[in-house]
Amino acid sequence: MGPDGDQGSASIGVAAHIAAASEGGPRYDPIMTPEERSAPENGIWLCQTCSRLIDVDVPSYSTDLLREWKTLAEMRAYLGIRGFAIVVSRSFDKLEEKMPDLTAEMRKDIADLPFSRTCVAMSSKAAFNGDPDNPTLIYYTDKYEHLVSKLKVMENYGALVDVTTKSHTPKFELTEDFVEYLQQPR
Q1: pTM of the model
Q2: N- or C-end of the chain: fewer Cβ atoms within 10 A?
Q3: Do 96 and 176 share a structural domain?
Q4: Does the pLDDT of residue 64 top 70, yes or no?
């Protein structure tokens, strides 16, 4: 289905030239023929902002860079329509730099309970009734300032998945990638 499909999709992109179609335009290449200038190979699909940016900041956006963008976008689309997930990962090392104490406690907890994957954020004054056959890692909001926000950042890094239910106690699952990171020798 394309942007003009009948299933309610909307096109918000803009077709842009990699090398300008006319003399004096951004990245104009006098060696190109008129046919090459109007060919699909000289086009790139961008958002409104980027289509404008590449034309006003020409030194930062060379034809080589734009062709690289196009190739990468086409490769992602090719893989995506074949069912492959494209994952852009972030470094858990950077995450640990942002919150070393919390990460250190999680590392210790995983060393003690290597098959636990669920964690909650709560006050140390509250009680938690967990499953004795599936121990839950508990992190206290009165120990870590902005704990729930920190756990959300960890979620953004792919370290956790928010599985909070109607209980309103913030509950997360540690991803296997993050657990493997925590289990690495330090």
Answers
A1: 0.55
A2: C
A3: yes
A4: yes
